[in-house]
Write a structure and sequence with these properties.
Blueprint (H helix, E strand, L loop, with lengths): L2 H13 L4 E2 L6 E2 L2 E4 L2 H17 L4 E2 H4 L2 H6 L11 E3 L15 E4 L1 H7 L5 E2 L1 E5 L2 E5 L3 E2 L11 H4 L8
Length: 161
């Protein structure tokens, strides 16, 4: 194992156990724990209803989404479970625009919404990439009992907590 590979392995081990300060760049790092929660599933249900109401293929969340959904920024977290999909940014868009703002439900999202599919209750994310999933499987109705908890989000990977 090279020095860089060894350093990466040590760094990854450190960030899976909670917030850690990088000795090189002096920034904090952590593997975030995101739990399916009531705001996320309310957003999923609202998105489905808006798609049905308008007959559109995509919904412009910044323009059409209710304030609670836009402010929570929880809809984008559902993409980590492949329950929603963001339309790629158009090439001709403004240079500083990061995303299109357009979202749709996936087939998996529809099955979860209908109670046909169970999902892992948690996803572990580092640098906006999924590192793994929790082992407990939940149906959509169970998510209404869970709320966002910042302390849980930054405590690292605890698969069976």
């Amino acid at each position: 194992m090279s020095d860089i590979e060894s350093a990466r392995a040590k760094w990854y081990h450190a960030i899976t156990n909670g917030i850690t300060r990088c000795p090189v760049c002096d920034r904090n790092g952590v593997v975030y724990t995101l739990r399916l929660n009531s705001t996320m599933v309310r957003g999923l249900i609202w998105l489905e209803a808006e798609l049905a109401r308008t007959g559109a293929e995509w919904v412009d969340i910044p323009a059409k989404g209710p304030r609670w959904l836009v402010r929570s920024n929880q809809l984008s977290s559902l993409a980590k479970w492949n329950l929603v999909r963001r339309m790629p940014k158009p090439v001709e868009s403004k240079p500083k625009t990061r995303y299109s703002g357009l979202w749709q439900l996936t087939t998996q999202g529809e099955a979860f919404r209908d109670g046909v599919l169970t999902m892992p209750d948690r996803v572990f994310v580092y640098n906006d990439e999924v590192q793994g999933y929790g082992t407990r499987m939940v149906k959509i109705h169970e998510c209404f009992e869970t709320y966002f908890d910042y302390r849980e989000a930054v405590k690292g990977i605890q698969r069976d907590a």
